[in-house]
Each structure stands twice: as C-alpha cells, then as structure tokens.
Design brief:
By secondary structure, this protein is mainly alpha-helical. The chain has six helices and two strands, in the order H-E-E-H-H-H-H-H. Strands 1-2 form a two-stranded antiparallel sheet.
C-alpha cells in the first residue's frame, strides 16, 4: 500500500489528508497508463462501499504495473516523492520481490497448487526486513 500511496501523492492526492481516502479534487490526475496500455486510477472511490470515502485498492498485479509505469507518467513526480520518503530512489530489489510474489500468487490463483518452496519464497520476500522497512518508511512519511 505504501508504494501506491507514493503514486497517489505523485498524482497530486493531498497527503496525509487523503492517505487512504478518495480525494475528489485530484480525480482526473489519478489515471496512470501501464505498459500494457491499461489505464488505472490510483484515486478512485471504493466501489464496494461508495458511501465510504476510502479510495479503491488495486490488486497486487495492477499495483505492480502502475508503479512500474510511474517513471513514465507525465509529469514524473513519483521518483521525487519516493526520494523524499527514503532519501534515495526506490531500490530495485523491492520490484524484484514484488514481481516474484505476484508471479507465484498468479500461478496459484489460476492453475497450480503452490509447492513448499513457493510458500517459503513468498514469505521470505514479503517479510524481508529490508523490504518491510523500506515500505514502512514510505508509509510513515506520507501518513504523518
């Protein structure tokens, strides 16, 4: 979630006021075109509970595509937002871990049961102290 919040901040969603909430003033600026030509809105009202002001959460795969597309998003404020949070760009190993988790999850949800090694890989990537600390630093910066 923290990296998506950085994408939302880069699309001019007011932080921390709208950290996990739909921001009506930034509606048009939240659209991001992914490399697959899919448009995703990082500032869309949750469909399930429209009376609640939460923004709609993106599934793991779409979130990965959005974050990968952000450096090409015009204007590119994503790198600036992340650099403000971390005092450095988003480390590439975060994307590597995210991609591995997504691929394993996708395989399991569509075609095959997971092996013991797949479970271990997901847990290792998801709970890696370096990945976890990086994401928490972004979240803490944007939510405070």
């Amino acid at each position: 979630m923290s990296v998506i919040q950085a994408a939302r901040a880069a699309c001019n969603v007011t932080m921390p006021d709208f950290f996990a909430r739909y921001d009506p003033s930034s509606r048009v600026r939240g659209r991001v075109e992914t490399a697959r030509g899919i448009h995703k809105d990082v500032n869309q009202r949750a469909r399930r509970y429209p009376q609640v002001v939460r923004h709609r959460f993106l599934p793991l795969g779409y979130a990965l595509y959005v974050i990968r597309a952000m450096p090409n998003h015009s204007p590119n404020f994503f790198d600036t937002v992340v650099s403000c949070c971390l005092q450095q760009p988003l480390p590439s190993h975060i994307f590597d871990a995210w991609e591995r988790i997504y691929q394993i999850r996708n395989q399991a949800s569509h075609t095959e049961p997971l092996s013991h090694e797949d479970y271990k890989r997901v847990l290792k990537d998801a709970l890696s102290p370096d990945v976890w600390r990086t994401l928490m630093r972004i979240k803490q910066f944007l939510s405070s």
